[in-house]
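re the bet — no i am not wrong, look at it urself. input seq straight from the record:
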Amino acid sequence: MVSPERAQENIDLEKAINCPKCKVKMKQIYITRPETVVLVDSCRECEGYWFDREELEKVLDFETMRMDLEFDPSPDHEAVFPCPRCQGEMETMILYHINVDICKACNGIWLDKGELKEIRNEYRFHKQQNKVVELLHNLLEEDPGFLDTPA
């Protein structure tokens, strides 16, 4: 596991960004996970988070989140702020039932207060559902009539 002190050596403090909502300088925080330490940007005012490309996957322990999860265009919401990292155009997407803002250029993700927890909970719920479906599929392959058997 990488220690926060070791990760600190690679940080360029000049790259601190402003919150896309509040416009204040965001603080950088460490989120420690097995095998990695992730440095993310956090707003003290609105409590939103900015995740550079692939940081969210690391924080949530998703191996390939963008492949596992479906992002759908949000018909009701449009991002009204530029990307805080590259000033590119942001696009509002739906992840489960949650509107998240994704930069079309650098693939960074902005999460408003509480959305990180909601995404984590939804992902865990869907992951458990998928395990149940896989188990039933395996049981049906082994014994196609197992559902016909009286309890």
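see?? The helical segments are 4-8, 55-59, 65-68, 115-142. told u. also Residues 50 and 110 are 5 Å apart (CA to CA). so pay up
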